[in-house]
From TrEMBL, chains B, D:
<protein>
    <submittedName>
        <fullName>Butyryl-CoA dehydrogenase</fullName>
    </submittedName>
</protein>
<keyword id="KW-0274">FAD</keyword>
<feature type="domain" description="Acyl-CoA dehydrogenase/oxidase C-terminal">
    <location>
        <begin position="193"/>
        <end position="337"/>
    </location>
</feature>
<dbReference type="GO" id="GO:0003995">
    <property type="term" value="F:acyl-CoA dehydrogenase activity"/>
</dbReference>
<feature type="domain" description="Acyl-CoA dehydrogenase/oxidase N-terminal">
    <location>
        <begin position="7"/>
        <end position="119"/>
    </location>
</feature>
<dbReference type="GO" id="GO:0050660">
    <property type="term" value="F:flavin adenine dinucleotide binding"/>
</dbReference>
<dbReference type="InterPro" id="IPR036250">
    <property type="entry name" value="AcylCo_DH-like_C"/>
</dbReference>
<dbReference type="InterPro" id="IPR037069">
    <property type="entry name" value="AcylCoA_DH/ox_N_sf"/>
</dbReference>
<dbReference type="InterPro" id="IPR009075">
    <property type="entry name" value="AcylCo_DH/oxidase_C"/>
</dbReference>
<dbReference type="InterPro" id="IPR009100">
    <property type="entry name" value="AcylCoA_DH/oxidase_NM_dom_sf"/>
</dbReference>
<comment type="similarity">
    <text>Belongs to the acyl-CoA dehydrogenase family.</text>
</comment>
<dbReference type="InterPro" id="IPR013786">
    <property type="entry name" value="AcylCoA_DH/ox_N"/>
</dbReference>
<keyword id="KW-0560">Oxidoreductase</keyword>
<keyword id="KW-0285">Flavoprotein</keyword>
<dbReference type="Pfam" id="PF02771">
    <property type="entry name" value="Acyl-CoA_dh_N"/>
</dbReference>
<dbReference type="Pfam" id="PF00441">
    <property type="entry name" value="Acyl-CoA_dh_1"/>
</dbReference>
Length: 388, 350, 388, 350
């Protein structure tokens, strides 16, 4: 065990910090759930990509830096420290890309990854369906093979970013009459194909953060199949592992929120201490953000030694999502009567991040597999408890 | 010793409930909030007036029904349940209470009479609330200034709109200058008036919170009975059941505290403040837990604008700091509980 | 609504207070889970009974005072305020007696109740079996009718107080081949009958607070059957309603603990405030003890108007049991390094109640139907949620 | 940057684990605790010595293995898991650390040598613990007095037995008078020695807490797999599953904090105290939750003396306030976190 950064790692941090200090926009970009904001974030991604910063863990020839997980953690720390913009293409870069690298053909990798790194292509996910949320194996949308094409019919829902994204990846039932996790295929497609209708869904904040997607005889070239036909479930599970695992929520995000929360508490300390629970919650949040960071470094170190990611995927999901809610609830308490103000309200100046963050945090225990499902997974797969 | 409501109180509550079920469906309210500047509907206010709500607190001498805090506490649970904007209780309950306590008979006659007829909206500006809701469409704004009561019309004050996450709320930062012309009550009398107003408002918020909690519980139970995953309604899973049961427990043990606070308000009580703040905390706890758990039961659907749940969650979040936030109310409880002469233990409740 | 006590109620309170001040032992009695303590508590019950105080809600002719529920609450408040001894015969007086009054014959009432009121007979309960805990309908112990007798075989477990008690009430399967809640009978029997073996079970504190009971062809006269043969389940459910409902845990108990906790906090205030969570927990505990009291008065008032006890049974059970744990956990935190000391340790002087109370509180979420079962009941019966 | 243990450390841990599985079965330990005055077994101590545990911290110069805090933190999780009385870590880890830091070579030689041979028990008296465990059978008691280190034998001090709910613990109130004869280190040097001892002891308690949490989780999972109600193992019910999963999550996020604290101890760190206390809090939280939830999974069985669960629950309750209670450790974290020059936020962890 050695908890010192190497000289190379320190140098990497310094380089990233310097670049971000010079380039991070001084004013926050508009929300990427608006058309204007999406475009601005796409430009920012291109700027990141010019340095290999949009996808630091990717190989250099695909647009990344070939960074290892410790370097990724360092990058993320600097990124969040700098208050840089949210990552509009994270569905592609952090979720799809690792799967593509493992299961994609050389042609697919070359076709998709470089354009993903620069966000020339932005990606949305197509997992859930109206009858298949936590129960993902209940997918009913179909992909019927016809020669060199799949013909897609059905409906997806809760597709994050789909309103403005270029491409979709998702699971479709390619074997007629198959059930549950059999006979599914993992298919990629542009969202502007004929027969695709994207219906925005307004979120709590009023913005179209996700969408319903309807497929009416959409014809997708067969070379957009990822992995083998009928192999979709296995491949998707790998993706879900990444999602719930390390890369979806880097610890730096929560450390930034925790530090902001401490600052908010300190700035309102006399007022806050009227409710001793606040001081206690602030401390606990900071400790938990540290714990999440330490756990991630420990996992990264184990992976570097050749271990495989295991139950961390589920324990992480529960831990960060509940921490995020707790941090934002605490901030709401500190803000008191100002907490309810929309970010654009004049009196919300300087605190706009908290309501946005609070609303976003509430989605945490739900998406990427509800925390109830995660607890089932921990109980059954990690602890070996009997199935119902 | 009888800790239950009279039949008459319950019947009036039931009548208002029946009215609201029909007249205040979520889609109706949402249309007001989402398509109008004021977020309010004169027709709805007229109907509410016809139900007697705006005259409920007005003394009989001024044409009102002269009902008390215990009547209000039952009604306001329904108001909360149905998502009626909370400016109603500020006007008809808290505001009327302030006006009724003033000495200027002409002033009282005018405004209490107009309230009875449904022809006045009252708004209230108090330091516990940095922003004033419905100030723009108020016919009269009652303003705190160093314990004095002032009154002004919207055109006499500067108004800066500050949108809330709760689409029903129209919040304004006020810019005004107190003067002899606006003063309607001096600080000596005003102090008690404002103290009573704060306690009433806190009970009103608490009552609405309990109603909101019950509504969110009902929505969570309903949704989880319909929504199927893994071939079963998700409401058959123990995790969801227990989340709903937890809300029910919170509600069961918030309501009596709320009702005791209303009784204390109506009858006067040496530790009124602590009783009111305890109620406020217990009710808010139920509502906030209901919001969390009902959203979890709704899954992604709970995160949408489309699902009605959002209306009630956002109200609960907004009310959490209205008329005193958690810090304020905890401090009032602490002051009473940790006082050297605090009377606690068995036999000290009543 | 009128929250003032009547003159009669105030007078009743004054009388009870006066008597208790004169009679409550100045030093705590030994634990009633010891032989010596059991005897001492039995004597105390007899003294209470001499005033009708052992069972204030019972009719006067059976040894009570005919008190209504409000008077019962007043009595309990005074009883806990006075720091009077625990109730060694509560299984009989508060659980069995209401059932006996509703379902017993005149002969049974006359035979059992007066001796119960004086604790000449003390009672243990025989619900659970090794395979039937939360799932009470899984009872397998049998009661075979032979003429004027039942022949009892099988085993009961977790019988509170059974080590020193005189009588047992419980459910036995009287219809051969019946299943679940069918064919059960509610039978009363002396614990010294031939064929009964009582094996003490040591609890966490080392004392035999409950027991296993083995029945080997125990012959019980048929006139000890309560209600009809095969009616046992319905009758037991009524008992369970009482148990989880009002009478098992009077609010005064928790108000006393809450007041003691506030005093403990005040006495250690400077130290305590190093952990702001303690102050917050103390406040919350006191508020919840008040809430429980208010809810009980509200229920008593509704019952006085003719309402029936409903879901309160389950919501109460959850609320008081979790409150009790929280209060004692908080006290343990305040006591710090002294918390672990056994009541007889020299350095535990003045704090002995807290460890005992902590251990006892931990049983709260388990006995009389685990809190998991209570939440199921609330969800299914009160909220109408679908069964699994 | 490599936040993982060396293979050698893991292998040593595994070896000790295998030893404890065989030698420290619950029934063996209980017999010591319940049937002997001391609660200790010379045979067991001998075996532990043979495993190298009593010599682990002793510098090579004195015949020991000279291993560090990171080795201990792995081993002590096993010690906790198997319910070995915590006096072991006080003697072989904390106590040896104190002795090794002294200057008196003769004293060190004698006691470190005896530790290596398993021929000494050390007990420690420090103001954080009002009572001293195993004082009666100690061969040497190290005593704090105004930052000085003193040493005495049991016959030189008054001992008053104070039984603990944890049947393994033999706690004594000490009555003694510091003198030149007992002093082995002055306050100037002693201050740092005691500070390090407190931090070591806190990490040791934390490590045992994590081990206890894991043990109680395992017991809860095992029992709920066997125990049937309603025709199914209760472990198949979601409520029990989630209670067990919650323990697992707490453990997962306590361990890395604990390991970082051990690293900070071994390598020195400017904010060592906060790191140690954070670890201590996180580990205790896991253990206390494990006790609650495992008991709930056990039902009435968890409330018995007979079920092994009680051994581990009681240890967790006792350790919760050993070498600093929650208040002490929270305050140390707060001092670091809320300091004007606190370094927090992304990139400040290491």
């Amino acid at each position: 065990m050695d908890l010192n950064y190497t000289q190379e790692q320190q140098q990497f941090r310094a380089t990233v910090r310097g670049w971000l200090e010079a380039h991070v926009p001084s004013a926050p970009l508009p929300s990427f759930d608006t058309e204007e904001g999406f475009a601005a974030h796409r430009q920012w991604e291109a700027k990141l990509a010019s340095q290999g910063y949009s996808a630091v863990t990717w190989p250099k020839d695909l647009g990344g830096l070939g960074a290892d997980l410790i370097e990724w953690l360092i990058f993320e720390e600097e990124y969040w420290r700098a208050g840089a913009p949210g990552r509009v293409n994270q569905n592609g870069i952090f979720l799809l890309a690792p799967t593509l690298m493992e299961y994609g053909t050389a042609e697919q990798k070359a076709r998709f990854l470089p354009r993903m790194a620069t966000s020339e292509d932005t990606w949305a996910q197509g997992w859930s369906e109206p009858g298949a949320g936590s129960d993902m194996a209940a997918i009913r949308s179909t992909a019927r093979r016809e020669g060199d094409e799949f013909v897609i019919n059905g409906q997806k829902i809760w597709s994050t970013r789909a309103v403005y994204a270029d491409w979709l990846f998702g699971l479709f039932r390619s074997e007629s009459g198959s059930s549950r996790h059999h006979g599914l295929s993992f298919i990629l497609m542009p969202l502007d194909l004929p027969g695709i209708t994207v219906r925005p869904i307004r979120q709590l904040n009023g913005l179209p953060g996700f969408a319903e997607i309807f497929f009416d005889n959409v014809r997708v070239p067969a070379n957009n199949l990822l992995g083998g036909e009928g192999e979709g479930w296995r491949i998707a599970m790998a993706t879900a592992g990444f999602e719930r695992g390390l890369m979806l929520r880097s610890p730096a995000r929560f450390q930034k929120t925790a530090a902001d929360l401490v600052a908010l508490y300190q700035a309102n300390r006399e007022r806050c201490d009227a409710d001793p629970a606040i001081r206690d919650a602030v401390m606990k949040c900071w400790m938990d953000a540290e714990a999440y960071t330490l756990a991630t470094y420990a996992t990264a170190s184990r992976l570097a030694k050749g271990a495989k990611i295991g139950a961390e995927a589920s324990t992480n999901k529960i831990f960060w999502s509940e921490l995020d809610v707790k941090m934002h609830e605490t901030a709401m308490s500190i803000l008191g009567a100002r907490a309810e103000l929309m970010p654009h309200a004049p009196r919300a100046e300087g605190i706009a991040q908290w309501l946005d963050g609070f609303l976003f945090s509430l989605a945490g225990p739900i998406y990427a597999g509800t925390n109830e499902i995660q607890r089932n997974i921990i109980a059954e797969r990690m602890l070996g408890m009997p199935r119902a | 010793m009888n800790f239950s409501f009279d039949d008459q109180q319950v019947q009036f509550r039931d009548a208002v409930r029946s009215f609201l079920v029909v007249q205040a469906a979520p889609e109706v309210l949402r249309e007001h909030w989402e398509t109008t500047d004021s977020g309010r509907s004169p027709e709805m206010r007229q109907k509410i007036t016809e139900q007697g709500l705006t005259a409920l607190s007005v003394p009989e001498a001024y044409g009102g029904l002269q009902q008390g805090d215990l009547d209000w506490v039952l009604l306001l649970q329904e108001v909360g349940y149905h998502g009626i904007p909370d400016s109603l209780s500020d006007a008809a309950y808290v505001g009327v209470g302030i006006v009724a306590a003033l000495e200027d008979e002409a002033f009282k006659s005018e405004w209490l009479g107009r309230m009875c007829e449904g022809k006045a909206r009252l708004a209230i500006s108090h330091p516990l609330n940095p922003l004033v809701h419905d100030a723009q469409i108020a016919d009269l704004i009652l303003l705190w200034h160093n314990d004095e009561v002032h009154a002004a019309t919207p055109d006499q004050v500067g108004l800066e709109l500050n949108p809330s996450i709760d689409a029903s709320r129209r919040l304004y930062k006020l810019d005004w200058t107190p003067s002899d012309a606006t003063r309607v009550c001096d600080a000596a009398s005003g102090k008690a008036i404002w103290a009573q107003a704060v306690n009433r408002a806190a009970v009103a918020v608490g009552a609405q919170m309990v109603g909101l909690a019950q509504r969110m519980l009902d929505l969570g139970v309903d949704y989880s009975a319909q929504r199927k995953q893994f071939g079963k309604p998700i409401g058959s899973f123990q995790a969801i059941k227990h989340q709903m049961a937890d809300i029910a427990v919170k509600i069961e043990f918030a309501r009596p505290v709320l009702h005791r606070a209303a009784y204390a308000l109506q009858h006067g009580d040496a530790t009124l403040e602590a009783k009111v703040s305890h109620a406020r905390l217990a009710c808010a706890e139920a509502a906030l837990l209901a919001a969390r758990n009902a959203m979890q039961a709704h899954g992604a659907m709970g995160y949408t604008w489309e699902a009605d749940l959002q209306m009630f969650m956002k109200r609960a979040w907004a009310l959490e700091s209205f008329w005193g936030d958690r810090l304020f109310h905890k401090q009032r409880v602490a002051q009473a509980l940790f006082a050297a002469d605090a009377q606690i233990g068995p036999g000290t409740t009543f």
